[in-house]
Amino acid sequence: PSQLMALWTEYCNHVNKTVKFEVENKSLSGKFMGLNTDGAAIVKTNGNEKIFSSGDMHLIQS
């Protein structure tokens, strides 16, 4: 599993990019930091890391 995670991270084009995460009619924008060991998204916003295990993520073009 760690090899798969490393390979996914290598080819992920939105790591360290600004994303908007939408879940349960709420949205949050921040920097996508990657996935945790459970496969949940880590999004950093206002200096805090938020964990999302479901929802819609959109890459914000800059």
Number of domains: 1
Count of DSSP strands: 5
Helix and strand string, N-terminal first?
A: HEEEEE
**CATH C-level name:** Mainly Beta
Number of helices: 1
Reported by name, the CATH topology is SH3 type barrels
CA radius of gyration is 11 Å
Helix content: 10-25%
Can you walk me through this structure?
The structure is a single chain. With 62 residues, the chain is α+β, with helices and mostly antiparallel strands. The chain has a single domain, classed as SH3 type barrels. The protein is built from one helix and five strands, in the order αβββββ. The protein has one helix spanning 2-11, and strands at 18-23, 26-35, 41-45, 48-52, 56-59. A five-stranded antiparallel beta sheet has the order 4-3-2-1-5, with no helix packed on it. The longest helix has 10 residues, at 2-11. The radius of gyration is 11 Å and the shape is globular. It starts with a helix and ends with a strand. The relative contact order is 0.27.
